[in-house]
Design brief:
Rna Polymerase Sigma Factor, Chain: A; mainly alpha; Arc Repressor Mutant, subunit A; 9 helices; 2 domains
């Protein structure tokens, strides 16, 4: 079975299509939700709810478009709502440039620096935890899912300026948290 067949079956009321879609998209959906909620059990619940809603919502899916972005938007929205309900957020800081964050993500580590890389990843994940769910969501969409600002604007129904502001605010806050963490370790 392929994805189109699974979607057609699900639209026809055949639940076997859901099994294929779960197997194909569950891991990425769970990673996305976990990056936003920073709470694995909550992320698992979010993804499960999204898949359980799928038989009721699949009729609104346009089969001429890719399924994954459509489904991942629902995962992102649900994860943001769940994270906001769990009240695990912190106020945003000031804005900064996009180049710093892209350099941060592009840094490569040698094999000898693997321990340092793992520590850095832990620091980034800890800093992400301190961002608001909405800030985590835009960073996950942009850098984990690889969505362009245009795709984010269309998917979220938010003005392009708001997307840019959210990304800049999230990157600035993350940068501040990481720099503070580095100073605390000294």
């Amino acid at each position: 079975m392929d994805e189109q067949t699974a979607i057609q079956r699900l639209k026809a009321g055949d639940i076997s299509g859901l099994e294929y879609l779960v197997l194909r998209h569950q891991v990425k959906a769970l990673r996305t939700a976990n990056l936003i909620t920073r709470d694995l059990p909550l992320a698992e619940d979010v993804v499960q709810e999204c898949f359980l809603r799928l038989p009721r919502t699949i009729h609104s899916f346009d089969q001429h478009r890719p399924f994954e972005p459509w489904f991942m938007r629902s995962v992102v929205h649900a994860a943001v709502r769940a994270a906001q309900r769990s009240a695990k957020n912190i106020q945003i800081g000031s804005e900064t440039d996009e180049n710093w964050f892209e350099r941060l993500l592009g840094q490569g580590q040698s094999a000898e620096a693997e321990v340092e890389e793992l520590e850095f990843q832990r620091q980034v994940l800890d800093a992400l935890q301190k961002l608001s769910p909405r800030q985590r969501a835009v960073l996950v969409q942009r850098y984990f899912l690889g969505w362009s600002e245009k795709e984010m604007t269309a998917g979220l129904g938010i003005a392009p300026g708001t997307i840019k502001w959210l990304l800049n605010a999230a990157r600035a806050r993350l940068r501040t948290l990481l720099e503070k963490g580095a100073q605390d370790e000294r």
